[in-house]
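Q: what sequence does this backbone want?
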C-alpha cells in the first residue's frame, strides 16, 4: 500500500510526496510490516535513520557499506560507533581493524575512542602480534598527520607518545624470537616502563623482568619481577600506598600511575615468579639493585633524576644514547643497536 500511495502522490500530487514519504519513514522506524528489510528501505529515504537501525541491530556490515557510500562526516560517525561497539564487546583488535579500514580522523570527539583502544589493546593478557602492532602504528601515524594538518597542538604530544609506544612494542615483537635480538627486545621492555600510564604497570614490569631474565641480567630481572609481585598484591589489596619505591629513585620510571583494573599474572604464574625471586634472594648475599651508568643513574633512564638532563632516546631500543649516536628527528639511534637490527 505504501508503494502505491507513493506512486500516486508522485504522479498525481507531487506536492504531497514529501508528506507521504515522511509518514512512510515513520512507519518503517516504528517497525511497520515487521520485516527485516526496513532498514534497507529506510536508507533510501532517510539515510541516518536507516544507518541507526542497522547499528541498533548490530548489522554493521550493511551499516558500513551504506555509510561508506555517504562518506564524509557520516562515515566518520558510524565507523567510530562501530569501533566503540567492538571495544565494549572486548574486541580491541577488531576495533583497530575498523579504524585501519575506514580511517582514524583527527576529530576531537574521537580522541577518547583512540585512547580507550590503546588502553584495551595493551591490557590484553596475550602478547600482541607484530601484525597488530604494525597496524596500530600505521593508524596512529595517519592520525598524527591529521592532527598536524588540523594544528591541534593540545593533543599532538600525547598521540606522539602513543605512536612511540606502538613503535617500540612492534619492534619488540619482531625481535623477541630472533636469535641475537633478545637483548634489544629486553631493552625495549625496560624502556616501555616509562609508559605504565598506557601499559598496565604489573604487566610491564613482568615483561621487562622476564626478558631481562632470559638475557641473564639477574639483578634487573630480580628488581623488575619483585616489583611485578608487589604490584600484583597491591592490586588485590586495592592499596598502592605501601609500595617501596626506593629501588627506582635513580630511574625515570613513573611511580604514580593508574591502578590496573585487574591483575595480569595468573595465580600459577605468580607462584612461579615468587619462587624464582625468593630463590635469588636466598642465594645472593648482596642486595640486588639496578645497574647504573657513568651518569650515576639507571642505565635505562633517559632523564637523569639528579641533574634533570635528558639524553637522546635510541629509536631502536628506547635506551639513552650516550655515545656512538646517529642523530634523528626528535630521537637518535645507537649505532650498535642499529647495526644488529639491520644485520
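A:
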Amino acid at each position: 500500500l505504501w508503494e502505491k500511495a507513493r506512486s500516486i502522490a508522485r504522479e498525481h500530487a507531487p506536492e504531497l510526496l514529501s508528506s507521504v514519504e515522511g509518514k512512510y519513514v515513520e512507519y518503517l522506524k516504528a517497525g511497520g510490516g515487521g520485516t527485516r528489510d526496513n532498514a534497507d528501505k529506510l536508507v533510501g529515504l532517510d539515510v541516518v535513520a536507516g544507518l541507526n537501525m542497522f547499528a541498533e541491530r548490530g548489522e554493521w556490515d550493511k551499516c558500513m557499506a551504506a555509510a561508506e557510500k555517504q562518506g564524509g562526516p557520516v562515515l566518520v560517525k558510524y565507523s567510530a560507533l562501530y569501533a566503540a561497539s567492538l571495544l565494549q564487546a572486548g574486541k580491541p583488535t577488531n576495533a583497530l581493524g575498523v579504524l585501519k579500514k575506514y580511517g582514524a580522523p583527527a576529530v576531537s570527539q574521537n580522541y577518547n575512542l583512540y585512547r580507550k583502544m590503546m588502553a584495551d589493546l595493551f591490557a590484553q593478557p596475550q602478547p600482541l602480534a607484530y601484525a597488530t602492532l604494525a597496524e596500530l602504528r600505521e593508524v596512529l601515524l595517519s592520525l598524527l598527520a591529521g592532527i598536524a594538518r588540523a594544528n591541534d597542538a593540545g593533543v599532538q604530544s600525547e598521540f606522539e607518545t602513543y605512536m612511540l609506544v606502538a613503535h617500540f612494542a612492534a619492534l619488540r615483537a619482531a625481535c623477541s624470537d630472533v636469535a641475537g635480538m633478545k637483548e634489544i627486545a629486553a631493552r625495549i621492555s625496560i624502556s616501555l616502563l616509562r609508559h605504565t600510564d598506557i601499559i598496565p604497570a604489573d604487566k610491564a614490569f613482568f615483561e621487562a623482568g622476564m626478558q631481562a631474565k632470559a638475557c641473564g641480567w639477574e639483578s634487573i630481572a630480580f628488581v623488575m619481577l619483585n616489583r611485578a609481585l608487589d604490584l600484583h598484591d597491591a592490586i588485590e589489596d586495592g592499596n598502592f600506598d605501601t609500595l617501596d619505591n626506593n629501588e627506582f629513585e635513580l630511574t625515570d620510571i613513573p611511580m604514580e600511575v593508574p591502578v590496573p583494573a585487574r591483575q595480569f599474572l595468573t595465580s600459577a604464574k605468580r607462584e612461579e615468579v615468587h619462587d624464582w625471586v625468593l630463590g635469588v634472594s636466598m642465594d645472593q648475599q648482596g642486595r640486588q639493585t639496578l645497574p647504573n651508568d657513568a651518569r650515576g643513574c639507571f642505565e635505562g633512564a633517559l632523564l637523569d633524576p639528579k641533574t634533570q638532563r635528558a639524553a637522546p632516546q635510541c629509536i631502536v631500543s628506547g635506551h639513552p644514547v650516550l655515545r656512538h649516536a646517529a642523530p634523528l628527528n626528535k630521537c637518535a639511534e645507537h649505532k650498535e643497536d642499529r647495526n644488529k637490527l639491520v644485520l
